[in-house]
Structures are given as C-alpha cells and as structure tokens.
Design brief:
447 residues, alpha+beta, 9-stranded mixed beta sheet, 5-stranded antiparallel beta sheet, 18 strands, 18% helix, disordered N terminus, cell shape
Length: 447
C-alpha cells in the first residue's frame, strides 16, 4: 500500500487544521521600572527582582536572572523602545525543555514570577490507617528552614530539537499513540508536537536502541497496525458513561471540597478523555457538535493500547527534563513519563529516597496548623478521593516526609507547569507506574 492510501486511511477518522497559537499580550500590562526591564521566556515583564535569584550571563552575553538551579527565569533588556510591543518570543526562549522551544505555546511554564505561596501549596496528611478512606500522606513539599541554597550552575545541554515536516494533526496523533503504546508517554494526546513528544522520542530510542524518525508516518502507521490498530477508533457512549456519577463542579475552597462525597469527574468528556489518554479539548475538537451525554452516540477516540506491565526496581526523576524514567532490576528502561517536578518556591529534593507505600484513590487531609492558611479554613479537613482530588487517583509516598509521586486533576498541564515539590504525573501514567512498583523501590532526583 502506498503512502497516499495509508494517509487517506488515517485521515478518514478526522481532518483537522493546525492553528497557530496567538502571541501573549501580558507583557504590556507591566509598568516600566528604570532604564532596563527583565523579560521572562514567555514574554512577560517582571516589575521587581524575585527573592532567591542570582545574576549570570547567557551565551549572547546578556545579563539574566537565574533560579537556585541555574534555570534562566528572565533576561535583561533596555526599556527604551521596548514598549508598547514585547520582543519576539524566540529571543527570550532560554528554557531548553519548555514547550515554546518546540512550537507549542498553549501552556506557560512560568508566567510572572512571584514569591507568594500558591493557594494549593503544602498540605499535611494523616497516616493511611487513621482515615475513613485511603489518604495520601504529605503530598506537597514543605521546605526545611535550614535548607541550603544550591550553587547557581549553567543548565545542561538538551537533546537536539526534533522538527516535523508539514505533518497534519492526525499524523502527530499517530506518533503520540505509537509512543504511548511503547511505554514512553507523550502525556495527554492532543495532536501537538510539544516538548513532551520530543522527550518521549528520545526515551523510546534509549529504551529500544533504535532511532525513531517521527517524519516517517508510513512506518509509524505500520507499527500501529501491528500493535493494536489505528490511532483513532470509533467508540459508542454507554449508559454508564452518561450516568457518571459526576459532580457539578470542583470548588476551590477546601472546606467546600470536604463537604463533597467524592471529587469525581465533572462531565462525560472529562471522564472519556482521561480513559483514552486524551486532552479534553482535543476530544471535543474531533467530535464537533456531539452531545456526549446521550447513550448510543458514536464518537472518535484515541486507541492508546494496553497498560504497560513489569517490575520497576529504580526510578529516576529528572528535574531538568521534567521526566520520570522507570528501570527494572537489570537496568533496562521499561517506561518513561512526562512530569511536573518541583518549582522555585518549593523545589524537589536531591539525592535518593525510596517508595514507602502506594495508595490508590487516596483522600487528602488539610492541616492549617502545619501548612498554609487556605481562605478562612482553620481546622483539619478530610477531603474525599477522586480523579479531581489534589493528588489525583494515586499516591506513592516517598521516604522523605511530605514528598511523593502522584496523579493530577489537570493532565494537560503535566510537563508544562511546575509542582509543589512532588512528582506529578497524569492519572493514567501514575496508575500504570504504581502497579509496577513496590515499597523499597529507589527514587533518584537528578538536576
């Protein structure tokens, strides 16, 4: 079968145009501070120098602000002539592992840098056996007061950027599904060639020893046919899909969260997108005008294949790449996942720890006496479990208190945003990994 027929077979499921992301105008909202301004990688202007940062020079000799790990958070520029238009994004794109480097600007890694504590920051949990349902213990990192600030170092060199040659969204979906089935997760499948896909390609090559050409759609489609079929398939919405149970919305206030019986999905599209490893917006995009609440409705979904199996003996959490690697006892890579690992305010630890326990469908305990003050809440709150809970559907507690590997209620942001010190994966990736680990598995944080 020639290339035209293969692509036509793939295109029969969906035909989508690739739209360019609109540039951000946020930079115009900041006021001028002196003769110079500091511009973040996504084009925003800082109106002050954040605490905990240092000065350095980039390769072009520009003065830059760097965080304690050496990551460039802003570049100095002359204020004269800067307003009203921000500079071109690529001039200030210094994050080698950010999505902007790969043409996907939908999710900002940094935004305006502040020293404030996020509203969903560190939260304490009680032991699992003291709760009415499984609880995640110590989800978000609490930083020791005597923690030493690491020396500022230059970021390591990333792998070369991988470019696609005039590939349609459906062809990129085929690539994402191929990687997902191989056990090197591209995150939420959405038809975009972002950093998560690039990282997965390099992980695939590390796992197999084979060079993957992402532009060879013929070969990718042939492999998909032999490993479970086409990347997009038809699915009929069942009465159970339509029935849920669902919740109307997920409140932000923890006291209101605690009043719910579960933090379940809010809609059929959210539930189906997670089941098929998809971005919810992409699911709606390839099924225009569909009422997902009607049983019997036939829709198009991603065909991700079977869950990866094996026994994990060692995990590496690469903070620079925002990626987790799982190895067996022989040192063979058996799975890789995009991850959100730490932030400037609550960085992840360094060194090696171990997995202490695994909890599926964990609850969440908020303790204002130990952690931050959330709204007017001044009492311990037991927040029920569910995929929209703060730790998603899985909690893998680590031997360093308050740290763990867990899921998330926002899968499309994994690898594109920061966490509060823990290792955050999509719910499906966290579940897959949790089923392959046991207490005692080592987790090594590398910079």
């Amino acid at each position: 079968m020639n290339r035209f027929l293969k692509l036509a077979s793939l295109g029969a499921f969906v035909a989508l145009a690739v739209s360019a992301a609109a540039p951000s105008a946020d930079a115009q909202q900041y006021r001028r501070q002196g003769s110079v301004v500091f511009v973040t990688p996504n084009g925003e202007i800082l109106d002050y120098v954040p605490s905990g940062t240092g000065y350095a020079r980039d390769r072009r000799g520009n003065r830059v602000l760097v965080d304690p790990y050496g990551n460039i958070i802003a570049t100095e520029a002359r204020a004269t002539g800067y307003y009203p238009r921000p500079p071109a994004r690529e001039v200030y794109n210094n994050d080698p592992y950010g999505d902007d480097a790969y043409g996907d600007t939908r999710y900002s890694e940094r935004g305006a840098v502040t020293g404030s504590i996020p509203r969903d920051a560190a939260i304490d949990r009680q032991p699992l056996d003291e709760q009415p349902y499984p609880q995640a213990n110590d989800d978000y990192a609490s930083i020791d007061q005597d923690q030493q600030r690491p020396e500022v170092t230059q970021p390591r060199q990333p792998e070369p950027v991988i470019s696609l040659k005039n590939k349609s969204k459906t062809e990129i979906v085929a690539l994402q599904v191929f990687l997902d089935r191989a056990g090197v997760s591209p995150g939420a499948i959405d038809g975009h060639m972002g950093a998560n896909v690039t990282k997965a390609i390099y992980a695939y090559q590390q796992m197999t020893g084979e060079t993957l050409d992402p532009n060879n759609t013929d070969a990718i489609l042939e492999q998909l046919r032999m490993s479970g079929g086409m990347p997009l398939v038809s699915y009929t919405i069942t009465p159970a899909d339509a029935a849920g149970p669902y919740v109307a919305e997920i409140p932000e206030d923890y006291a209101h969260k605690a009043m719910l019986t579960s933090l379940a999905f809010t809609s059929t599209t959210e539930a189906l997108a997670e089941r098929f490893h998809m971005d919810e917006g992409f699911l709606k995009e390839i099924n225009p005008g569909v009422d997902f609440t009607v049983p019997g409705t036939i829709i198009k979904v991603v065909n991700p294949g079977e869950m990866k199996s094996g026994t994990v003996a060692r995990i590496i959490a690469d903070k620079g790449k925002k990626q987790v690697f799982a190895y067996d006892a022989s040192g063979t890579l058996i799975a890789a996942y995009p991850a959100s690992i730490g932030s400037n305010d609550t960085p992840s630890p360094s060194g090696t720890v171990t997995v202490e326990r695994v909890a599926f469908n964990p609850g969440y305990t908020y303790n204002p006496k130990i952690n931050f003050q959330q709204g007017a809440n001044d009492k311990i709150l037991n927040i029920p479990p569910g995929p929209n809970g703060p730790v998603g559907t899985v909690w893998m507690a680590l031997s360093k208190p308050t740290y763990g590997i867990h899921g998330t209620p926002e899968p499309s942001k994994i690898g594109r945003t920061q966490s509060h010190g823990c290792i955050r994966l999509t719910n499906w990736d966290a579940t897959e990994l949790a089923k392959m680990v046991k207490p005692g598995v080592t987790v090594e944080f590398v910079d």
